Every structure is written in structure tokens, then in C-alpha cells.
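Q: Here's a chain of 380 amino acids. Please give me its 3D structure as C-alpha cells.
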Amino acid sequence: MALSPRQQAQEQIARASHILVATRQHPTTDTVASAVALGLYLKAMGKSVDVTVPNFEPSQAPAFLEGTDIIQAHIGAMRTLQITLDVSKTPIDEFLYDIRDGKLEITVIPKQHEWNPSDLAFTHGKDRYDLIITIDAPDMASLGPSVTEAADFFYRTTVINIAADATNEHWGQINLVDLNAVSVTEVLFSLFSEWNEHLIESKIATALLTGMMAKTRGFRTPNVTPRTLTSSSRLVAMGAKRAEIVDGLWRTRSVSTLKLWGRALARLHHERDSGIVWTMLSHKDFLEAGTGAEALPDVIDELISTSPDAKITALIYEHETEPNTVCVTIATAPPHNAIELTRELHAIGTRDRVTICLRETSLIDGANHVVDLLKKSVKN
């Protein structure tokens, strides 16, 4: 009998010696919590694992979430470079190396005679990782430039693709995409429970419940299912710190962040014909609110949650340090594709969220340009 995708994934993990866990760019709280939970679970299995969230900053994770120290902001070396020198006939006397002007200089001194160029060989060593697990990544491009630059490695290594989104292209060799789950953390909890529930200790349980609660705004979204509620109850029984999660996600917003929310909501525009919701924030707004760009992810998440009918949400703001530069974060819901909508502007991001910066423009002109482009793209 053929193995199910879950069984195939478990077999691949059991055989792997060094696993790379990689998430999409512009991660949500659910994405980061999933990365933490999976990394800790694999370590509990005794696996060697590296966890990467592109350009990760500690501020992207809730302060109460334990285990974020395992997250790296960049993928490390994929494989080694091996230099081989034949010393069978000409033995080594001294070996010296130095780094000058960004170059590694190696000096090898023989005991006698000398080496010929034919004695030296350069080869690539083995791949550093023998398994890749991706989280919340609809396609390979969503993992960011560091992956695009190492595409050959991803093509020659088995990928387990874990997601809970209908936009996922099932691009892995093994695809664990559960469209009935409300979050990636709910998918992971189902997998962990099936594989070895006893490895789910308090830190892992808290990370899983954090993602589920963040994705559902505290179980208030319409896609919450009885399975979701049952899973959350089991996680609390396993040691998930529900009170800390609630306080950390919703009761500890700084006054400055709340002020910025208020300014964004006061300027909210709703283009009913196109389903576009957008707002603007100026330098003055940031100064008077007493906060900076670190508050923007919370602002756009609040815009999305307060505008359930919006298909496209745009937050347009003046850059903190670059004069005459306006940046835009655009979030989309199916059937819209954020990258396709903003292709003319060369946006960076994923199908459901992109960021663009426009130079030599004012806030008003930049907003008008972006909104007009979105309207035009929606009509087409």
C-alpha cells in the first residue's frame, strides 16, 4: 500500500540528518509561530535543524513567544568548497592563510621540490542540508531572493511544503496543504499529534496556539471550525500559555501603536466598486504617535480585520529616513494576486502581500498613483 503524504513526510524526516526549515517573506505571526514550533519539535526528535525566516527581526515575533532564538534571518551556506592537494610525493612543510581585501589567500610551503597545477583540484562538497521543509510559502519565489539565488539546491533536494492556503501551488515533492485548517500552526498540530504527541511540550504548545489565535483574531473569524476549537483546548491542556498569548497579542499594544492605528483609520478610504481599502500615514503621523515603521505590520493587520469585505488593502506611508520616498504595503485576498496587481511597479513579496517604495514623489501623488494602478489592474 502506498504511503500517504503525511507518512512520506515522516519517513523523510526520520532519514534526514540536517534539515532546513524556511518560511515565506513578510511572515505573519502564524508563520513565525509555525517556524518556532516546527524547529523545536524537530530538535525534540533529535534532529539537526536550521530555521530561517527571511530578514527576520525580533520585533516580528510576539515578545512572550519562547524559542525565537532558533530563527536565523538568512540561509547559510548550501554546500562546501573542497580544495584537494596531492601531497603523496611532495609533503607539506607549512600551511598559511590570510584574508585580504575580501579574498582568502592560502600559502602552502613544501618540504622539498614543488607542486604542479595538476596536483590541485577544486570540487563542491556535499550539500549541507538533505531535506527542506517550507512553511506558508505558496511558491518558491515567496521564500525570497536568497532562495532564488540557490534555486539549483532547491531543485535537487526534497521539499516538504506545509501550508493552509488555497493559493499554494503544491510545488514541493511532498505537499501537506490542508485547506480545512485555519492556520499553518493548526496543520502542524495535526501532524505532531499523529507523529508523536508526547514531544509537544509547553513551548511548542504555546507557539502552536499563538499562531491559531493570531490567524483567527482570537477565534473570531468565520472559518473557525470545531476542530480548531478542539485543538486549542488540547493545546491548553498540554501547557500552552493562553493568558500570556491573549495579553501579548491584544492587551499589550503600546499607546503609540494605538495612536497610529487611529490616524490610519481616520483616513480610511473604501473603493466599493473595486473592493480596495486604503489609507495614508505621513512623517507627522509617526512623530505625533511616537512610533516608527515597526508598528506598520500591526496597523495593516488591523485594517484587514476591520475591513472584512476588502479584497485589496493598501497602507501608504512616507519613508522614515529617505526624503520624497513613499512606500506601500498591499495585502490581497483571493482571487487577487498582489504580485500580478503591482507587476508594473516591480513589487517585492508574495501573492498575498507585497511592498513597494516610490522615489521622488509626495505622499498624495504616490497614493493617487498606486490606487489608480490598483483600480486599473482589477478592471483588467
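Q: Can you summarize the key feature?
A: The radius of gyration is 24 Å.
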